[in-house]
Design goal:
By secondary structure, the chain is an alpha+beta fold. Helices cover 17% and strands 36% of the residues.
């Protein structure tokens, strides 16, 4: 594959997964300069400009009655920690489809999106800047099958979930709880 714009797969010398080292168009090494009042990478050979945009992701805050669905993460970040089903939006799908796909892949169940809870931007070590679209999802399915990047899945009361969940998602519990009142 050579040097063609391949994204770094591992964090290497301060380079995250979504950093380019080489131009994805011509393969030349990228340089930096101020473009549109921001320091950006560009290719001095072909003129490509790398507009480093956040990667869009979704998170399903899934409720079954008065319990929340959490998955135990099997891959970084937060391996072994409890979190809501979440993941990247794939090319060709909208955010709602991605949310329900991630739910099915990670737990084996289906659900119905009830509302958009919040949208926020987060900088991560693994993926750089991500845009997280949080949805309130309902299901009545009881039998869970952990899959994809989840090693376990379970239903928890709001209080139990608050104690288990990764800190970055704690706000989602509070948003969902406010909808229930």
């Amino acid at each position: 594959m050579g040097n063609l714009g391949k994204l770094s797969i591992f964090k290497y010398e301060g380079v995250s997964m979504n950093d380019y080292i080489f131009c994805p168009i011509c393969g030349s090494k990228l340089k930096e300069k101020i473009i549109n009042n921001k320091k950006r990478q560009y290719c001095p050979n072909c003129g490509f400009i790398y507009y480093k945009n956040p990667a869009p992701t979704v998170c399903g805050i899934v409720r079954n009655g008065n319990k929340l669905l959490l998955i135990k993460r099997g891959i970084p970040p937060h391996v072994g920690s409890w979190a809501f089903p979440c993941g990247f939006i794939e090319y060709g799908e909208n955010a709602e489809e991605a949310c329900l796909r991630e739910l099915k892949e990670e737990t084996g169940i289906t659900g119905t999106i009830e509302s958009l809870l919040s949208v926020r931007s987060v900088d991560t070590d693994e993926y750089g800047s991500i845009l997280i679209i949080n949805y309130s999802v309902r299901t009545d399915e009881e039998i869970l099958t952990a899959g994809d990047d989840a090693t376990d899945a379970g239903y928890f009361t709001f209080e139990e979930a608050r104690k288990l969940i990764i800190p970055e998602q704690l706000e989602c519990i509070e948003n969902e709880e406010a909808l229930c009142k």
